[in-house]
Amino acid sequence: MKIFAFFPAVILVLTVGGLFAQTPTQTLRGKISDQVTQAPMMGASVIILGSEPLLGTTTDLDGEFAITKVPVGTYSLKISFIGYRDLILPAVILNSGKETVLQLSLEENISEIQEFVVTASEKDRTINDMISVSGRTFSVEETRKFAAAVNDPGRMATSFAGVVGTDDGNNNISIRGNSPNGLLWRMEGIDIPNPNHFVNPGSSGGGISILSSQLLTNSDFITGAFAAEYGNALSGVFDLSLRKGNNQKREYTFQAGLLGTDIAMEGPFSKKYKGSYLINYRYSTLSLLSKLGVPLGDFVTNFQDLSFNFFMPTGLKSSISVFGFGGLSDQKSQAEADSLAWKEDFQRYNSTFFSNTGALGIKHSYMLGKSSFLQTTLLASGNEIGSSLDRLDERYQSQPRAREGFSNSKITLSSVLNTKLSAKASLRSGIYLNQLYYNMRESGYEEDSEEMRTKIDAQGNSQTVQAFAQLNLRTSDRLTLNMGLHYLQFLLNQSRSLEPRLGLNFQWDEKQRLSFGYGLHSQIQPLGTYFARLNQNGEENMPNKNLDLSKSHHLVLGYDRSLSPYVRLKVETYYQHLYQIPVKPGSGETYSIINQQWGFMSEPLVNTGLGKNYGVELTLEQFTYRNLYFLLSGSLYNSLYQTEEKVWRNTRFNGNANLTFTGGKEFNWRKNRVFGVNIKAIYAGGLRDTPIDLEASLDRGEAVYEQEETFEIRNPAYFRADLRFSYKVNKPRSTRIWALDIQNATNRKNVFGSYFEPLSGEIKTAYQAPLIPVLSYRVEF
């Protein structure tokens, strides 16, 4: 393709043209606070390691610092304060186009004299100090730099141990063999709706994230045995934090590429006020990729989104934040009125689809004296998903085949109190109240009766209540305990769960750490499942309205070893026992909600299903050092489920093994020009499929599956290699970045599954995404 020849030529011209450019400088600013109380820390030392001459400063009365005229580049930063553990940030990037502004917190030492010194680093600990196991911090730079991540946290997470993408066409992820629906999204300490475009009903992922990396700062990702503050999730948690805009200087970012246009602006409300705004808008039409010859089908696809964060201090001890996001996405496909052009059955269908999601929150933070910090948030959120599917008959008349309209909205009030009881102990407790509103309709065509049948039709409201309390206790410099309880109640049918949580970290020596975690977790079913309608003897009823919560025991044992200041080895083994899982009743039924990626089951279910996931994970990671980073993660696992037939079967997501290598290197020219090469390679066991009974399918005119062999077929092994090339130029007042992402660079045909094609009467294979080039240009100023 011409695009591949064009990109190296651009780099060559820009490189030669900039040989005599001077090295620009930038300001490094930030704020240092106590980890628990968020109180500002005056007098903390901030040093740029390896700088010559040594650059550094101390924080002022408000805990703020600024180091000016720092040459652009990548640095390690050391933050120290008497009575607190040192913090090392190994890869702080300074560009000329935007100031680097950091929000950091330090952990208090529990004794003045320690047997050994443990230095906290940016990524070997989570931001949330209550997380003991199965958690890691990810940075905005990772979402931007990882090959094929396209600024999407979901796609970026497939580099981590135990995380598998279930479909190249979206960012659904299976964590440790669990359904993608077990994932919880959280922002600024409060639960949010699925923040993705092209969301299918009942799913936790979508085509691409609504949230731009412009808005995010370092955040946590947890894959098991969650701390007590997280509820209504079985597989994982994205705990996202928002970046505050620059409160001293107006800055702008513009990005254009084949995925769309992205515009961001930030700055102070006024020169005399420390408040700030940060706004990002994005618009895209994927038809540009189709015009380049990338096979995306016959759909006309568009999306746009807006996200923002306004930070407003209201005094020395309090502040208000107003934040939110909104996304619109749609797809349309029009069938050609020519039966000779129909090679496959789907070509005779007209379809429309839209998915709209939004959230608006206001957060009040207040320091109660020297030892407590209260955060109260009110969030209004909702999503609307609709679709229609019509089939052209032999006279090209449109016949309805499916109609869906799902509207959900929620008002959430949360209040969380952090209290430092002593240098050794802190307590976090809170409550989440949710008012739910729903309007859900689904109907589909039945071949037997040859008419449309209503499957779901419900509107109304309900509530959920969640409460938690958790204690962080450092009994010594070696041993830390996290203990807590979480309570969840769904008032629609009064289902409830009281869940104990326990975490333990033991620092064996300066380099080694052991960890253990246990938790009982529960989750409400996808909402539409409760409102399935069944017609029995001429009477309509809702057999699933009283379904109980799905539940799971998590056990995790981990070992963490520092091989050098920049290299870490981590091993975790885990076991999950799932119970009260909705399944179809009957000794011959094989359906379990465990295997559902999206959509709502409209047939009667009972809470008698079981599941189990167990395995071992390994992570070898070098944090960015000398402009080189890598992450090697692997897992061996088994994922099984059981229905009332009392047979253990493979789940849809049981690939058994996964190996991922992600890495990159940057090469500097005269400090102000950087060429980057990044790679991501995945080799994984194929996910599971159910064989199709061809003879029965021919008789019925649609796919009929061999239920006794449910998920017995394993798809061929999955392999995908992604590449990213970038070229960054730091001008005196701007930073410009050209990037080319090549997704599935080897153009491997990875199998998605099999399907029955009625027109030809054959079983055919569906493949995942081919090679896709994504070129972009970004300027910060």
Automatic annotation (TrEMBL):
Q: Which domain of life is it from?
A: Bacteria
Biological processes per GO annotation = siderophore transmembrane transport
Give an example GO molecular function: siderophore uptake transmembrane transporter activity
UniProt keyword terms in alphabetical order:
Cell outer membrane, Membrane, Receptor, Signal, Transmembrane, Transmembrane beta strand, Transport
Q: Name one Pfam family in it.
A: CarbopepD_reg_2
User: Which SUPFAM superfamilies has this protein been placed in?
Assistant: Carboxypeptidase regulatory domain-like (SSF49464), Porins (SSF56935)
Provide one Gene Ontology cellular component.
cell outer membrane
- Topology in membrane: Multi-pass membrane protein
Q: What is its main location?
A: membrane
**UniProt name for this protein:** Outer membrane receptor protein involved in Fe transport
